Amino acid sequence: RHGDTDGVSWVVADLTPAYTNAASGAGDFSARSKRLRHYQRSFVFDRRAHVIVVHDRVTTEDATFRQKWLLHSELEPELQGPHFRIAAPHTSSGPRGVLNGKVLLPEDASLTAIGGPGLEYFVQPGRQAEVQEFLVVMRTGEWSATESITPSPAATLETTGDTLTLTLDGDQPLTLHLPRNMGDIQLQRGR
User: Fold this and answer.
1) CA-angle at 38, arms to 52 and 36, nearest 5°
2) Phi first, then psi: what are they for 16, rounded to 5°?
3) Alpha carbon of 94 to those of 86, 88, 123, 143, 189: distances in Å?
4) Which one, of 74, 103, 98, 101, lies nearest residue 86 by Cα?
5) For the residues of 154-184, what is the DSSP string, one character each?
6) In 3-state terms, what secondary structure has residue 75?
7) Cα 168 to Cα 117: distance, rounded to the nearest angstrom
8) Cα–Cα distance between 39 and 60 in angstroms, integer?
9) How many angstroms separate the CA atoms of 23 and 51, rounded?
């Protein structure tokens, strides 16, 4: 499912096949074990506000399986509570880009920067749960040395049954209705 309306592109995808395969449980690392029952990703890009929203809903076969959400970057992030910032340093040709973000789900998320020499592929243990949701809101922009780590989009989140309602504040507020059941994303711009 996908759409493009009012400057907003979105997609809802079933990513389960990327984490399971016909050889699941065969015993070697590439086959993995049968870990996931379902993995849905919703991805939204608001071209006007330069905002990216990623919502993952993961259902595992075993509630003791640890889940985590990873964002890979060449640069070390700055972390403060649920906020993160990845900023490319200035060059002789001028300022470069920045990505500011906030983790909204899980509500008690603990952000940890990992990596560096010898730890390029290291992943710390995640959370145990049969169904886990991750919701991350990010804004792209031009790097500013005076900008705080928290200018990720102001957002409010409401949960109603099979839908998450996310409202992003700004000059042109955007309300997103993110389905938990592979449905279409509904959106409304303005108040």
Assistant:
1) 110
2) -50, -45
3) 17, 11, 34, 10, 34
4) 98
5) PEEEEEETTEEEEEE-SSS-EEEEEESSS--
6) coil
7) 37
8) 8
9) 38
Six-digit token string for 47: 């071209």
Q: Which residue has the tokens 């809101």?
A: 137
CA distance 148 to 153: 13
pTM: 0.83
Query: Both tokens of residue 175?
Result: 């309300």
Residue type, 43: F
- pLDDT tens for 128-164 read 677 888 889 988 876 655 555 555 667 889 888 889 9
Q: What are phi and psi of 19, to 5 degrees?
A: -115, 0
**Amino acid occupying residue 53:** V
Q: Can you list the positions of beta strands (E) in the chain? A: 2-5, 8-14, 36-46, 51-60, 66-67, 78-80, 83-87, 97-105, 127-128, 131-142, 155-160, 163-168, 174-179, 186-189
Residue 29: pLDDT band with limits 50, 70, 90? low
The angle subtended at Cα 112 by Cα 9 and Cα 19, nearest 5°, is: 55
